UniProtKB/TrEMBL annotation:
This is GIY-YIG catalytic domain-containing protein. CDD domains: GIY-YIG_unchar_1 (cd10446). InterPro entries: GIY-YIG_endonuc_sf. Gene3D superfamilies: GIY-YIG endonuclease. The lineage of its organism: Bacteria, Pseudomonadati, Bacteroidota, Sphingobacteriia, Sphingobacteriales.
């Protein structure tokens, strides 16, 4: 595919010759590939009035909201306390991540604007999917001037990575991650080799946190496929893994599994028996009180 070849070029390039582009008044003279170059090459009209927008909230996981409840996310994006999109033709939307990193989530055309009595503004937007849909959630840029969350397109933003999947989180260490259920689903569905390799060779005690209720579930993985095999069951069962209490939650609300986060509490030897693993599991249940106050029931 043309996209894959272009992405490979962006990812692997170390030094490129100084380039000078003049696209509808936009100029660049830098040794870098910018989001502007990618978007304009894809057909975004450089003569339009375009803003780059970076959504970032310390109190909200906006990326998880975007993945699980797009209607609520777009309500968040389209409602503003100030008239920040007045006169704008398009916004290029990003979600802020660690540091200055920002993840591209689409190009949106503004079609209407309304001011309300309390002085807040509502904007109607239509997503421009045809040229940009396959780039969504994959392109990571370095955002300049983090204080300013909306900036005109003339401000260059460097592309630092184009990822292979929607939210490809690399495996680093067993104790160094939590996975949302959506992230786990992607890892299992796409069979990401680093995760599969490391989780398949490991048995352990794991924790599921319900971010909606704050309750915890402790489980153990001691089968031949290790933690990987056990967690695959959660993906295949929409989040409950055939655990009684979790099953009740998912049966009541099929989307409830989206509130679950997965992590590892303790690694177990490959030679451990089922009885020994269950004994360790009970120890953590007692420590965390998950039988009395959490989601375990045995």
């Amino acid at each position: 595919m043309i996209l894959d070849k272009y992405c490979a070029y962006l990812i692997r390039i170390d030094v490129i010759e100084t380039m000078h582009l003049n696209l509808g008044g936009y100029k660049r003279d830098r040794k870098m590939i910018t989001i502007q170059e990618l978007l304009f090459n894809r057909g975004l009209d450089a003569k339009s009035k375009i803003k780059l927008v970076r959504h970032k909230e310390n109190s909200k996981d906006l990326y998880n909201l975007y993945r699980t409840d797009k209607a609520e996310f777009f309500e968040y994006q389209n409602s503003q306390s100030n008239d920040v999109f007045n006169g704008v033709d398009y916004i290029v939307s990003f979600i802020g991540e660690e540091g200055f990193q920002s993840r591209f989530i689409g190009v949106y055309k503004l079609t209407d604007r309304k001011k309300f009595a309390d002085d807040h503004f509502e904007y109607q937007m239509e997503e421009v999917k045809e040229q940009f849909d396959d780039l969504k959630e994959r392109v990571i840029i370095r955002w300049k001037n983090a204080i300013s969350w909306h900036q005109w397109i003339k401000n260059e933003m460097e592309i630092i990575e184009i990822q292979p999947g929607l939210h490809y989180k690399k495996f680093t260490d067993y104790s160094d991650f939590t996975l949302s259920f959506n992230e786990l689903k992607e890892i299992v569905t796409e069979q990401y080799s680093d995760w599969k390799k490391m989780l398949s060779v490991t048995k352990g005690i794991y924790l599921i946190s319900d971010t909606k209720t704050g309750k915890l579930y402790v489980g153990s993985a001691y089968g031949e496929e290790g933690i990987w095999g056990r967690w695959c069951k959660y993906v295949l069962t929409n989040g409950h893994g055939n655990n009684k209490t979790l099953m009740e939650l998912v049966m009541d609300d099929p989307t409830h599994g989206n509130n679950f986060q997965f992590s590892i509490l303790m690694l177990l030897p490959r030679t451990i028996t089922a009885d020994e693993a269950i004994k360790k599991e009970r120890l953590f249940k007692n420590k965390l009180g998950t039988n009395s106050f959490g989601l375990n029931n045995n």
